[in-house]
Amino acid sequence: MSGPHLSQLVLFRILAGERVGLDEARAHLAECEICQAALEALRAQRAEWRAATDREAFLAPVVAQVSAEVGEDSPDRDGPRKSEDARILPFPLSRWTAAMAAAAAAVAGLYLVNVAPPEEVGLKGGPSLAVVVVEDGRSRPLGSDEQLRAGDRIGFVARCPAGCALQLVSGGPSPQALGGRFTLQPGVPFTLPFTATLDDAKTDEQVSAVFCDDSSGLAAALEMPSGPPAPGCVTRRVEIRRGD
Amino acid sequence: MGELESAVVERLFERYAFQVELRCRRLLRHPEEARDAAQEVFVRLLTHGGDFRGEAEWMTWLYRVATNLCLNRIRNATRRDEIWAETVDAIVQEPTTPEETVLNRRALQSVFSEVDEATQQIAVLYFLDGLSQQEVGEVLGLSRVTVNKRLMKFRAQTNARRDEVVG
């Protein structure tokens, strides 16, 4: 077998089931007994590790830390202290936690929603945010007069003609950041890699997208989410209308 | 944790936790510290995953985050010298390129602990992990030319230090 053997990183990627950009590596693997043995050894090692590792024990401190960090990052962190439950469930839109919104945001590569074309969801002109309704893993634009019910699942698509930093923020008297901050490429529609399942609230809700030229402007804008737009930032709001 | 969110985090765990912890163990050379570091990598994944711009697959991103985090921990560790000594041992015992066999162990250890963070990352990925210069560039978001320049500088520093040690 000619050529260098696969690096640990490439073996890790194959072990994780990744495929993009690995054609050459897989071709090498098919021919190279040394790399096959290395991959098999890793598989065996992983099996032993899984057998010896308590998943809940591994993840519990992670989730606790993420919950704490997301709570600290929220725009109203200097406001009155909320109950623990209120902090974890800051947004009546859904029964997801702020931490888990970030978790979902982190797995764009794992949890993709097949989103409707951008022109169909109304992404035109300047910085824009659109809501899509997700059904059976596919999405469609939210109708202009459409009312949503408990259990409906929605996602968000944004676009910024010149590229920008983006943060979604919940509406209401205590706006809170939803998910992570994202960098949008110029003119490219961006599907936010998380969805929300609506709870049984009856009142309409708002979600805002804060678009800024850079992430430092975003930080300034989020200090006063209800105030005037920060320099270099614009805010777009969408309504989530609720019905029976 | 809701049903969907549990599934997402558990899927991340299934796909990446082992590799991340193994990566941390290779650098930190201590199982408990490696577990702690791996959990911190997951925290970063869940809180800063939005910074991921799709320039690489998730494993590559995680590899970079884990490497940076562990190197930061080594810098602040009381057993820093011990860790670098073990790292250098691993490099010398399993040379990834022939030239490494002649690098002086003490000089290498000394330079590893002194160079700037970016060079340290490059040197670890290249000498310890055996990544190609192209792969090092992909992990760190640098051009291959930049990686090569940094490695040349690292070698020059190591050679100079070796001369000092020998001299």
Overview of the structural elements:
The complex is a heterodimer of chains A (244) and B (167). Chain A has helices spanning 8-15, 23-31, 33-52, 55-73, 84-88, 98-105, 215-223; strands at residues 128-135, 138-141, 153-159, 164-170, 177-184, 190-197, 205-212, 233-240. With 244 residues, chain A is of the alpha+beta class. Chain A has a 4-stranded antiparallel sheet with strand order 2-1-3-6. A 4-stranded antiparallel sheet of chain A has the order 5-4-7-8. In chain A, strand 1 and strand 2 (138-141) form a beta hairpin. In chain A, helix 1 crosses helix 3 and helix 4 crosses helix 6. Chain B contains 8 helices and no strands. The longest helix of chain B is centred in the first third of the chain and has 26 residues, at 3-28. Chain B is globular. The termini of chain B are far apart. Chains A and B meet through helix 1, helix 3, helix 4, helix 6 and strand 5 of A and helix 1, helix 2 and helix 3 of B.
